[in-house]
Amino acid sequence: xxxxxxxxxxxxxxxxxxxxxxxxxxxxxxxxxxxxxxxxxxxxxxxxxxxxxxxxxxxxxxxxxxxxxxxxxxxxxxxxxxxxxxxxxxxxxxxxxxxxxxxxxxxxxxxxxxxxxxxxxxxxxxxxxxxxxxxxxxxxxxxxxx
Length: 146
Prior knowledge:
With 146 residues, the protein is an alpha+beta fold. The protein is built from 6 helices and 5 strands, in the order H-H-H-H-E-E-E-E-E-H-H. It has a single domain (21-139), classed as Inhibitor of vertebrate lysozyme, Ivy, CATH 3.40.1420.10. It has a 5-stranded antiparallel sheet, with helices on both faces.
């Protein structure tokens, strides 16, 4: 009996781990989200790598005021520290917001461009986006659910 239970659990294990992680490059190409992403970056005059999503990390999830969001990011290939983009998107509301970061090593300054598609950008959204850029969201994921 014990062997049967273990075999059953091991059989189900691949199904439990088969969920594919979402990356910014996937988000930028997926039919259901591509329009949202394109609208955010279209008029910003950003580098070409941004359109494809760049080199990314798997999405994180946060809940703000009862609304569930996916938080994604990408960076310039082979130069992550110099240029990054972070995006927050709600599958419930179909709204997205983003921030583009450029770091100048010479002056040691970071410039941020908030991309909100003409929508107001709530402070909690800004906080989560900056936390994604800085790594705080990954280091303290439970600290960003408000």
